């Protein structure tokens, strides 16, 4: 758990530093910084999606996962629920320059938790005690949290709990997850998450109003879809025999 704890502390320290910087800039400057960060997040999302989708089958799975995820998310109204939760928290902690706690939480949680480094690093730490990947990730997340918290506010700090819970769970169950989260599935999860990160970037840079929280079910659907395709590939001859 050492790597996960270090990663969590890096997010906490970075967020606190970012919150100290918040409000030190004029509204015009803060908006310009937010748009610049949004453009960088867009590049991260595009590069992550392109890097992790090598073939046609994976691309199809990604599209299906996002489409069905959006459908499920809209039916469950996840974005509205998260917005209400964020508003309730914001009422407790007070105004923070008009920024939205839920937006900061979702944006930073996706950036810190969705990706190969988070999954592979936690498995390596749990199985082999090798925390190098998570130490590197801690540095990246710490720097990112400073920038994000300075513009999006306290929601970035709260996301440290998600980092601790998510990576900690992978570490604790790493022996089981190693056999389930094969390289191809990790790549698919990263690609789907990268598209969601692109959506966050567009929201920040262009005020695109993409309800990214409604896409969260896409991650679970990607896992189910991968193993459904795997089952069909392994039993294609049997299935054809039954159909004929």
Defining traits:
single chain, mainly alpha, 244 residues, globular, 0% strand
- SSE order: HHHHHHHHHHHH
Number of strands: 0
Largest sheet: none
Q: What average pLDDT do the residues reach?
A: 86
Radius of gyration: 19 Å
Helical proportion, percent range: over 70%
Poorly predicted runs of 5 or more residues: none
Description of the structure:
This protein has 244 residues and is mainly α. It has one domain. 84% of the residues lie in helices and 0% in strands.
Summarize the structure.
The protein is mainly α. Helix content is 84%, strand content 0%.
Q: Strands, helices and their partners?
A:
Layout: H1 2-21, H2 27-52, H3 56-76, H4 78-93, H5 101-113, H6 116-128, H7 132-152, H8 155-172, H9 174-180, H10 183-206, H11 217-234, H12 236-243
Helix pairs in contact: 1-7, 1-8, 2-7, 2-10, 3-10, 3-11, 5-7, 5-8, 6-7, 6-8, 6-9, 10-11
């Amino acid at each position: 758990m050492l790597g996960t704890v270090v990663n969590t502390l890096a997010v906490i320290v970075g967020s606190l530093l970012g919150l100290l910087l918040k409000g030190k800039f004029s509204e015009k400057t803060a908006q310009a910084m937010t748009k610049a960060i949004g453009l960088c997040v867009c590049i991260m999302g595009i590069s992550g999606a392109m890097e992790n989708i090598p073939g046609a089958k994976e691309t199809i799975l990604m599209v299906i996962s996002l489409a069905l995820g959006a459908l499920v998310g809209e039916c469950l109204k996840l974005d509205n629920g998260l917005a209400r939760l964020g508003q309730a928290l914001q009422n407790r902690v007070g105004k923070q320059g008009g920024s939205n706690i839920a937006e900061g939480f979702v944006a930073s949680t996706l950036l810190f938790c969705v990706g190969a480094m988070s999954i592979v690093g936690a498995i390596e730490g749990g199985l082999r005690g090798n925390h190098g990947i998570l130490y590197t990730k801690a540095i990246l997340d710490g720097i990112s949290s400073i920038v994000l918290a300075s513009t999006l506010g306290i929601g970035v700090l709260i996301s440290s709990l998600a980092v601790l819970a998510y990576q900690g769970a992978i570490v604790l169950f790493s022996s089981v997850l190693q056999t389930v989260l094969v390289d191809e599935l990790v790549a698919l999860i990263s690609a789907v998450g990268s598209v969601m990160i692109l959506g966050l970037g567009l929201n920040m840079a262009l005020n695109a109003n993409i309800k990214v929280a409604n896409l969260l079910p896409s991650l679970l659907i990607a896992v189910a879809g991968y193993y459904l395709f795997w089952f069909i590939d392994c039993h294609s001859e049997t299935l054809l025999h039954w159909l004929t």
